[in-house]
Write the structure tokens for this entry.
Amino acid sequence: MEGGDTFSVHGNGNQVDNKAFHAVQKSFVQVQSILNQNRLLINEINQNHETMIPDNLGRNVGLIRELNNNIRRVVDLYADLSLSFAGPTEASSGGDSGGKLGHKRVRHVNES
């Protein structure tokens, strides 16, 4: 991407600026980091469970809470990415979302 501030998205010629691309890239790097941390947490939780030592099992409570919080963070990052892509599309189609949509999935059914 040298020499230009935009690049073309495959198939439709839409232009996306470097700033948006880097924001998406940053989000994916954050997600990958959290998922790597989750892998380590899951390994530690499994090891603690296998020992059946009461202190280790008690420690798992905190580790599982941390794992759940990490999963929420990943969901939030993906939701924010989704909204950042949906926002311009909704605005150009005349749709008014009335603000942030939250984490609910909207399902569209074709009426025939």
User: Anything to note?
Assistant: The chain has two helices and two strands. Residues 1-8, 94-112 have pLDDT under 50 and may be disordered.
